[in-house]
Amino acid sequence: MSFEVLEKLEAKVQSAVDTISILQMEIDELKQSNSELAQTNSGLTETNAQLQQQNDQLQGEHQLWQERLRTLLGKMDEMEETV
User: Fold this and answer.
1) With the C-alpha atoms ordered 39, 44, 47, 48, is the resulting torsion angle positive or negative?
2) What does pTM read for this prediction?
3) In angstroms, how far apart are the furthest CA atoms of the chain?
4) Can you give the pLDDT of all 83 residues of the chain as single tens digits?
5) Coiled-coil annotation: which residues (predicted)?
6) Distance in angstroms (rounded) separating the CA atoms of residues 21 and 15
7) Angstrom distances, CA of residue 52 to CA of 34, 42, 44, 64, 65
8) Which DSSP category does 66 fall into?
9) How many Cα atoms are found within 13 Å in the side-chain-facing hemisphere of 74?
């Protein structure tokens, strides 16, 4: 009977070792995935900053064009009034 108990215990220990090995492999995969996601996040953050800067620049240019158009329209209105 004690031999059967030892066999059951050995089976449980082996099962625990197998489970630990599987979990360790999953942890390694998750660490790799986390590292890849961190790199992707870093790249996206950089891209976002560049796009924000470009957007700010384009908005500034848009404002300048609006001001120029207003000035030109104002000059055209003045010319019409004098004619």
Assistant:
1) negative
2) 0.63
3) 119
4) 698 999 999 999 999 999 999 999 999 999 999 999 999 999 999 999 999 999 999 999 999 999 999 999 999 988 888 86
5) 6-82
6) 10
7) 26, 15, 12, 18, 20
8) H
9) 6
CA 37 – CA 44 distance, rounded (Å): 10
The CA-atom distances, in angstroms, between 37 and each of 1, 4, 30, 44 are 53, 49, 10, 10
- The residue with tokens 């300048």 is 64
How far is C-alpha 15 from the geometric centre of its chain's CA atoms? 39
For residue 12 the two structure tokens come to 């449980």
